[in-house]
Specification:
The chain is α+β, with helices and mostly antiparallel strands. It is built from four helices and 13 strands. The strands form four sheets. It has a four-stranded mixed beta sheet with strand order 1-11-12-4, with no helix packed on it. Strands 2, 3, 5 and 6 form a four-stranded antiparallel beta sheet that branches. Strands 7-10-13 form a three-stranded antiparallel beta sheet. It starts with a strand and ends with a strand.
Length: 297
Amino acid sequence: MKPPTIMKVSPNLGKFFIPTPSTVDFVRRRVMIGKVTPIRDVPAHIERPYYVGRKAPNKMSGPSIKTEEDIKKMRKSCKLAKEILSFAGSLVKPGITTEDIDREVHTAIINSGAYPSTLLYKGYPKSICTSVNDVICHGIPDSSPLQFGDIICIDITVFLDGFHGDTAATFFVGEKDKFPNKLQNLVRVSEEARNAGISQVKHGAPFCNIGNAISEHAKKNGFYSCFDFLTGHGIGREFHENPCIDHTANNETNLMKEGMVFTVEPCVGEVEEDRDKVMMYEDKWTLATISGNYSAQ
């Protein structure tokens, strides 16, 4: 497969509207980037990951095998991340900005005694990632309001008691039943494909089983698993560590081992032709489809 085409483009791309016959009010739009506010403060008593204040984290190491005590602590951080994600999803509605969501989630995380892992990771300026419509991943919260008909992936990672917990989900902006069937199916299939990948996780199984199951489920439902270079990753004391988890069909022969902890987080797209055509905004984080087609995670 050809490597993805990454284009550096201006964030002020404007909007496009494609009326659909399935609803009267529904329109598609390419996201228009707004203003990003200054970095939020974190109280001094909150434990920070080591990379805060550094240009870059350590070189990826691992995979590490977690002890029972490590896994106990990871369950706590992951449970908190799940609770915060549910809270973030409850905020999603037409008119709210992703900046508003980031502010409320930031407060919820630090009030829980945790640190928002993305904040100042390689300089990232916000506490969550918010990827709307054609944005595949790593969208930066800003002043742009959400509109009815948008879909938004919210990606949350928290650092609690020395361990990171990472989770993400895609939400509908407005009543789900008013969305075209294709977008409802896109979000549903992205969740099912993730679960198909997770179902392959077991001691002694090859890592390729994960990506193959994800790709097969997406393809048979008329979608595709996005982009070879967007992988899952090991996680624990490090935000990102080995192993990298391919979400596309592959022949990886290395085997999973008991005690490994890693993410399975595929991005599923509408059109396979988009697979090797990606653009990166000038913020050096936001990745979007060149075509404007949507993706979900």
